[in-house]
Amino acid sequence: xxxxxxxxxxxxxxxxxxxxxxxxxxxxxxxxxxxxxxxxxxxxxxxxxxxxxxxxxxxxxxxxxxxxxxxxxxxxxxxxxxxxxxxxxxxxxxxxxxxxxxxxxxxxxxxxxxxxxxxxxxxxxxxxxxxxxxxxxxxxxxxxxxxxxxxxxxxxxxxxxxxxxxxxxxxxxxxxxxxx
Length: 180
Fold this sequence. Notes:
By secondary structure, the protein is an all-alpha fold. Helix 3 (34-58) packs parallel to helix 6 (89-108). It has 9 helices and no strands.
């Protein structure tokens, strides 16, 4: 059912956001199997969760608490079900979690502020949040406002914002026009 659904989602005039359709199309071309979508969504879910667990450990949370929280999240019946569905809200929620974790790392770990790979990760995450849903622009704008407002974070904070705006312009402009 999931594999059939992935093949039926095509064309940029679909009710799904174009970036989501592009991601599904790429995944199905890499490996034409349901497992590819499940694997990709599992990775998209685990990435921010592992980052959050690592940050909480660095900030002094005991491993027992992290393990119990992980067991609790894994035990919620909807977690594995959501990872096995084609629904744009799954990667959107994961991207919002990742954006929140990155914001926490940016404010709590000063060494991250000048790391260009970290800033690239922030830019790509901001871009994903803005494009994966029609209302994704709201958290995108709110995060940019927060980044701009916190002056103690230094000038490098604008690198991620500028790169994200550039990525959105390239993806929503020439890339979408070429594919459509």
